């Protein structure tokens, strides 16, 4: 049976830190959309990063989105003019958005989907669901983090297949590999809740058909750091020899490691690929867990940026043997999503290399 691999993108400092560390506010940081010549956009981002190593950006199909610090605003304006780029400001002060996300007033007594929660709360939700629905679910660990946290998930299987659930096709879901993408763990915990509590026959049929292994946060240290210190932190928190810390865990898998959209600089805020493939405890232990799974049918990775669905490969325009099947599944998924929420799709289904940019060392390509 062929495996199915999809990546879903959804719309939306010091190494040693403590409770006394000040949360980075990002006050007066501006959020821009850049459009124009691709090479000019890349030169602009490179120059901004050289001036401010903590620049946060994301590549898009037609340009980039960048968060610009007050200290480099003048440089940003000069670069945009020099490269003949166009800009649109989304937010003039992103600290207001961060404050809204962190607002304690959104919280309810029980775990909900009206607020974002720290990693201990997410893991508490998983433990509570396994205790509430012991006949259908089990708390599982998919690995360990650099700081010693368990990468926790939930295995969901129906009672009538419990003794023989090993023969059921396994659907593996991971999210939160990029620490700052908080909506991804929120989405997967919501999905878990639906599988275990819904009486909708379409959902219960989906639940009963597969052996689900769902991991809301496979970068728990990074998520905790993003939640408590730096909202836009994306990497792990492993310490490098030069004093910088963290690597992009979605550039660290042992597949064409370090070739495209990957940095060899440990201080790179975005795409440092690690010192070697699987240098990060999170990817190394999670990959071992995945290799132990028999009858793996599908690997799904949730990210956040836009309404987009990507299929392998991320760093090549080569298509997998089951590419046509993946595209068919992807189109059905996107069409259904639009019917539900009327969210225009950003792109896809397609490979990341074709619709975005080439990126090596990702979990999806390794699992292919």
Task: Summarize the SSE layout with pairings.
Blueprint: E1 4-10, E2 30-35, H1 38-51, E3 56-60, E4 63-68, H2 73-82, E5 86-91, H3 95-101, H4 119-132, E6 137-144, E7 150-156, E8 170-175, H5 183-197, H6 201-209, E9 211-215, H7 220-228, H8 281-291, E10 296-304, E11 308-311, H9 323-341, E12 347-351, H10 352-355, H11 363-367
Parallel strand pairs: 1-10, 8-9, 8-10, 11-12
Antiparallel strand pairs: 1-11, 2-4, 2-5, 3-4, 6-7, 7-9
Helix pairs in contact: 1-2, 4-5
Characteristic key phrases:
CARBOXYPEPT_ZN_1, single chain, 368 residues, 8-stranded mixed beta sheet, Peptidase_M14, zinc, 11 helices, metal-binding, signal, 4-stranded antiparallel beta sheet
Protein model, in words:
This is Peptidase M14 domain-containing protein. Residues 1-18 form the signal peptide. InterPro entries: CARBOXYPEPT_ZN_1 (IPR057246), Peptidase_M14 (IPR000834). Residues 115-368 form the Peptidase M14 domain. The protein is of the alpha/beta class and 368 residues long. The protein contains eleven helices and twelve strands. It has helices spanning 38-51, 73-82, 95-101, 119-132, 183-197, 201-209, 220-228, 281-291, 323-341, 352-355, 363-367, and strands spanning 4-10, 30-35, 56-60, 63-68, 86-91, 137-144, 150-156, 170-175, 211-215, 296-304, 308-311, 347-351. It has an eight-stranded mixed beta sheet with strand order 6-7-9-8-10-1-11-12, with helices on both faces. A four-stranded antiparallel beta sheet has the order 3-4-2-5, with helices on one face. Helix 1 runs antiparallel to helix 2. It is globular, with a radius of gyration of 20 Å. Residues 7-20 have low confidence and may be disordered.
